[in-house]
Amino acid sequence: MASKEDIIARAKEAITEFDDEIAAEVAEEALAAGIDPVELIEKGFTVGMKEVGEKFDQGILFLPHMLAAAEAMNAGLEVIKPEMERRKSQTKNLGIVVIGTIEGDIHSIGKDIVASLLSIAGFKVVDLGRDVPIKTFVEKAKELKPQIIASSALMTTTMVNQIQIEEQLKEAGIRDKLKTMVGGAPVTQAWADKIGADIYGESANDAVSKVKAALV
Ligand code: B12
User: Fold this and answer.
1) Is domain 4-88 annotated with CATH 1.20.950.20?
2) Which residues have any ligand 1 atom within 6 Å of their CB?
3) What is the pLDDT of residues 146-156, one digit of tens each?
4) Which of 61, 92, 111, 190 is spaced 20 to 30 A from 199 at the CA atom?
5) Phi-psi group of 207: left, alpha or beta (phi > 0 → left; psi -120 to 50 → alpha; rest → beta)
């Protein structure tokens, strides 16, 4: 049987080669070998995605490549989903997290992973999807009274909209009733501090441990 390192390396390669069939195949193999699906995502698929992003940045790859890489990643995640679901059912409800990709931004893969890991960790996650209007975050905060409102931003041009979440929650008079969490590739702890967000999560695992530290 292939080693764990080998399987994880092939998961990364499936993304950089835009191969959805191999991505699904490697995911099956990883599950059969008992590899932690979270590790497969973070050390394999995500690393491949980052490489594709860097090459896009350098003008070596183009938009169709990013799309194909995203499709390959989704094919791999699809295979892992049932195992993630199985883990979920064994946990209890630790609180409500409302999450979405910020207005103007359609990147959803990272947000989906964060949502899925929070859910496995025992939180009730309400996923608003992508390109979510600021007013929807605020409406859902009023309606569901979550402990956390989390937003994902993958672009420097859309992360500025996270300021609006802070402001509109204040205007609605509910900012002190919940905690805000921000994340996404261009988002940093310094950005979170600057806009007054309570929690910054660098990765899905980081998000889970910080939400737990804040609430549990
Ligand atoms: C895949 C991809 C796409 C796919 C998205 C498919 C999908 N369904 O999501 C497609 C092809 C559709 C796409 C489109 C575009 N993209 Co694009 N895309 C990417 C790429 C290559 C990877 C993103 C990704 O999925 N990474 C994998 C995931 C797992 O990582 P992640 O998102 O960072 O998430 C992790 C952490 O950040 C964190 N996290 C994420 N969200 C959250 C939220 C919270 C609350 C927390 C705590 C943590 C957290 O946890 C996650 C897991 O560990 C990035 C490159 C990059 N370096 O990010 C460019 C990138 C983000 N895209 C970019 C651009 C420019 C675009 C387009 C504008 C291109 C165009 N000309 O049309 C459009 C966007 C249109 C729009 N309005 O949104 C730029 C943004 C530049 C900028 N301004 O900052 C990037 C950086 C590429 C580049 N180097 O230039 N893209």
Assistant:
1) no
2) 42, 46, 49-50, 52-53, 56-57, 63, 66-67, 69-70, 104-111, 113-114, 150-152, 154-157, 181-186, 201, 203-204, 207
3) 999 999 999 99
4) 92
5) alpha
